[in-house]
Amino acid sequence: MVDMMRAWLVERITEDGEMALAERPRPVAAGDGCVIRVEAAGVNFLDTLMIRGRYQVKPPLPFTPGIEVAGTVVEAGPQSSNRVGDRLCALLDHGGFADYVQVPSVGSERIPADFPIREAVALPIIYPTAHLALRHRANLRTGETVLIHAGAGGVGSAAIQLAKHWGARVIATAGGPEKTALCVEMGADQAIDYSAQPIVETVREITGGTGVDVVVDPVGGKIATESLRCLAWGGRLVIVGFAGGAIADLPSNRLLLKNAAAMGVFWGEYRRHHPDVIPPMFAELFELRRQGIIKPLIRDIFPLADARQALHALAGRRTVGKVILVP
Ligand SMILES: NC(=O)c1ccc[n+]([C@@H]2O[C@H](COP(=O)([O-])OP(=O)(O)OC[C@H]3O[C@@H](n4cnc5c(N)ncnc54)[C@H](OP(=O)(O)O)[C@@H]3O)[C@@H](O)[C@H]2O)c1
Q1: Which residues belong to any copy of the Enoyl reductase (ER) domain (predicted)?
Q2: What's the gap in Å between 52 CA and the centre of ligand 1?
C-alpha cells in the first residue's frame, strides 16, 4: 500500500482561503476508525467558510478541508466493525479533500452494494440536514405547506424531495429561472425566482393569504426575516445556514403574533448529542434512494486537483445540488 498521498492543505488562514495540494503521509487506522481510499468527496458551503476561518469549527493548522467522503476501506482499526473492502460514506470533522482519510465509526455508514459511490457521497450531509430540519425540528406533517429557500442548492434540493415524499405541499425559492425550473423538476409544486419576485407577497398569493406551516432557510439575512412574514399561525422557521453571509436579527414580535417558533438545526452535533437517530435515519435514506424516491442532484463534478475551482463555483452560486470531487 502507498505511504504517501495527495491532500489539500490550509497552512494559514487568509481572507482568500489559501490552500495548496501537498504530498502527505497516508493516515494509519487507529481505534474504532478505519482508513478509506476516497473515491468521492462532497464539497460543502461550510468548506468555503472553514478555509477562511469563518466557520464555527476552526481546526488546528495545518488542516485538510472536506467533511464528507465516500470510498473503500483499505485498513481497519483494531476496534473497527468494518473490514477491508467495505464501502463507506462518512461525515468527518475535516480531512476529506485527500486520496485517503481516516473515518470515525459514528457518522460513517456502509453503502449498499448496488449504490453508486458518487451518489453515496451526497448522503452524509444534505439529506440528514434536510431530514432533521423537517422531521426532528419542524415536525412536518402530511398536508402541510413548506417553503424551502435555495431549493436548487444542496440542502434545498434534498429538502424538496423529502418534503414531497412526506406529503407536504412544497414552495421553493431560487435565484434565476434555470434554478426554479430545477426545483419544479425535483418535485416542488411552485417555485419563486427570488431574484425577480417579492417572496412575501408571492407566498401570500400562492397560499391564499394563509402563509406556510414550515420554512427551511439555508440562506439567512433578509431571507430569514422575510420568512417570518411568510409563516402561517403556528408556523415553524428552521434556521439551517447563512449562505447569504448575514445572520438575521429576527423580530420576536412576529413569533408572538403568529404563535410561531424559530429553531435551529445542527446535523454535525447529532453525532455527539443524539447518535441514536443516525442509523435509522441512514437506513431510511438508503431505502428511499433504492425506491427512487430521493435522487441526489449531481451536475458539478470536479477532479480533486480542482478543489479550489469547485469552492469558487459554490461560493459564486454557479453550482446546483451536490458538488463533488473525484480523484
Ligand atoms: N445546520 C446544518 O447542520 C447544516 C448542514 C449543511 C449545510 N448547512 C448550511 O446550509 C447552507 C447551504 O448549504 P448547501 O450545502 O445547501 O449550499 P449550496 O448548495 O451552495 O446552496 C446554497 C445556496 O444559497 C443560495 N445563496 C443565497 N445567497 C447566497 C450568497 N450570497 N452566496 C452564495 N449562495 C447564496 C444560492 O442559491 P440561489 O442562487 O438559488 O440563491 C446557493 O446555491 C450553508 O450556509 C451551509 O453552511 C448547515
Answers
A1: 17-325
A2: 16
Q: Does residue 56 sit in the same domain as residue 74?
A: yes
Pocket test for ligand 1, best of 219, 273, 311, 322 (most atoms within 8 A of CB): 219
Q: 170: which 3 cell numbers?
A: 412544497
Per-residue pLDDT of 3-14, as tens digits, reads: 999 999 999 999
Measure the CA–CA gap between 121 and 126, rounded to whole angstroms: 10
Domain of residue 197, CATH code: 3.40.50.720
Whether residue 265 has pLDDT greater than 80: yes
Predicted pLDDT of residue 153: 95
Domain co-membership, 132 together with 59: no
**Pocket of ligand 1 contains residue 264 by CB under 6 Å:** no
pLDDT, mean of residues 234-243: 97
Q: How far is the CA of 106 from the centre of ligand 1 (A)?
A: 25
Same domain flag for 105 and 148: no
Please name the residue ranges forming H helices in the chain. Answer: 45-50, 117-120, 126-131, 154-165, 177-185, 199-206, 222-230, 252-257, 267-273, 278-290, 307-315
**What is the count of structural domains for the chain?**
2
3-state secondary structure of 153: coil
> Within a domain: residue 286?
no
Domain that holds residue 66: 4-123+296-326
pLDDT in tens, 48-101: 999 999 998 999 999 999 999 999 999 999 999 999 999 999 999 999 999 999
Three-state secondary-structure class, residue 148: strand
With 80 as the cut, is the pLDDT of residue 1 above it? Answer: no
With a 6 A CB cut-off, is 245 part of the ligand 1 pocket? yes
- In terms of domains, do 117 and 132 share one? no
For the Cβ of 151 lying below 6 angstroms from any atom of ligand 1, the answer is no
Query: Is any atom of ligand 1 closer than 6 Å to the C-beta of 221?
Result: no
Residue 289 in any domain: the answer is: no
C-beta 228 within 6 A of ligand 1: no
Is the Cβ atom of 244 under 6 angstroms away from ligand 1?
A: yes
pLDDT of 203 above 90? yes
Q: What is the pTM of this model?
A: 0.94
Q: Are residues 211 and 108 in the same domain?
A: no
Assess if residue 287 is contained within a domain.
no
